[in-house]
């Protein structure tokens, strides 16, 4: 077994590998970019080596720097995690050439499965069922359009070297094909350095089910059951679960056999995932094989009781698989939710910022949190904006769903926009709860998952809690100020509303996205009488420095959290979260309007295409400019019919969040 390994990755997977290595008595070496100098995985590792500036191509994708770090620290093996160099055959070859063990499959297996078109040919020879489509080498746009016409719409264009939904577009009619192909190729070239694509029939309401496989260097290969990854946005997974709802023992055995056949066809060693697209009638087709550990591997660990990273170490060290197929069994049900810094309501745009308050749910037998960040860490535009993976387990799916809802309700994130609220609605969605699953579920249930402004209005209790927290925060400040003064017992320090003539009364002005309200507060002993919209409530409570609030509201005892960040007040209440702005009524903003007629960047990124010419008139919804952020393309469209007067940035230039991208003059 190894005595020291290097983790060629970052974030939660690096932290996970470090923890397993420590449990096995193996020392760990972390690599990091300049942007990650204070990252959690760097703090956890026994040693750490800086390998370059923030851009991944100059750090985490620079294989020669990682090899040099191994040599400098004496690391015997490299664990690549997922993403970055995990499926890079040149890097795996370089490790072998330098006497370093690559904790992953053989180079030949990476090469065979790395190009989707080539892997399809191998799977056809191995008897693994394939989706109808074109997987050849001819890449002329007109030829590919002909193939798509012959297959029949809708079709799916997929980057041959791709993964994670990058370089993938569904095309519903022939007129859309050329633009979709060009976009796929740009995205594929940027993400993978290869713009080769394949065309497949786009199945209606399919499920995405994958099989975890494991092979060793002694010729053994087995499967560790399935994961259902059907719930996706932009072809990227959002929720995963194991086992797959509705899976019969017969279908599980058939899919498991097909997955093992696929792995054996390429002499697979280590952890891998064979992904299938599955019709509602249960027929399944091979999509691709990911020659690495998957993001969603924890759900497999939760239902099997195994540590797949430990298995990776053992197999890479030449040991046989710890168990045989007949020794494996499924226990209970597990769900994983990917907690991202992103704005679900704005097309899942990635968000950046500092995690000024981060309190995940408590871990237990039933709840696990895999994360690469802690409070005060920053989510930067340089890497994937994942905050954590939230995994829950229970004896059956119904109870696991309840566990997940409670865990999401207990998650507290302030400082960046997150998808926690969206995930809670997704888990509560009747279609998901009833296992009516397919890869279009999010689009199909759009109205439930993206409630309008009226539905999102905070309830009355949330307004009252926000006002109570303001009053208690003011009282705490007075007490702290008195304690620090030379006369801590002076009555002039007290903020208890005492007046010589009558009771004190003040107003708390709060604003949510939907509206603005005034809460009138009268002091009553240790508590307050609050009036909102003509109705009164009696309130009291204690507020700690972390925002924990024990509140009594009209005789009800509530435990909530109210976190202050600037003028914003984040209220976590009854399994939901609301953001209020505390308005100072004595402050009046100066006159002046915002820029009109402009189009601004919804996130930091790079301009990769200008789709119109300055001086031309366009219709509402016409695509104008394409930004790339987090290796994904985002097309910005005309907000109305009008004229593009000028672009503010050229192709290739970086833009900041909120930067004005172009001057636009509406027709009216």
Keywords, separated by commas or semicolons:
668 residues; alpha+beta; Rossmann fold; Dna Ligase, domain 1; D-amino Acid Aminotransferase, Chain A, domain 1; 26% helix
Strand order of the largest sheet: 14-13-10-11-12-15-22-20
**Gyration radius, in Å:** 28 Å
CATH architecture call of the largest domain = 2-Layer Sandwich
**Distance between the first and last residues' Cα:** 72 Å
Main beta-sheet strand count, sense and barrel state: 8 strands, antiparallel
Indicate the structural class.
Answer: alpha+beta
Residue share in helix: 25-40%
**Overall structural domain count:** 5
Uncertain parts: 587-597
Overall geometric form: globular
Q: What CATH first level of the largest domain would be assigned?
A: Alpha Beta
Concise account of the structure shown:
With 668 residues, this protein is an alpha+beta fold. Helices cover 26% and strands 32% of the residues.
Question: How would you describe this structure to a colleague?
Answer:
- Strands 14-13-10-11-12-15-22-20 form an eight-stranded antiparallel sheet, with helices on both faces. An eight-stranded antiparallel beta barrel has the order 24-25-26-27-28-29-30-31. A five-stranded parallel sheet has the order 3-2-1-4-5, with helices on both faces.
- It is built from 17 helices and 39 strands.
- The radius of gyration is 28 Å and the shape is globular.
- Helix 4 runs antiparallel to helix 5 (107-114).
- Helix content is 26%, strand content 32%.
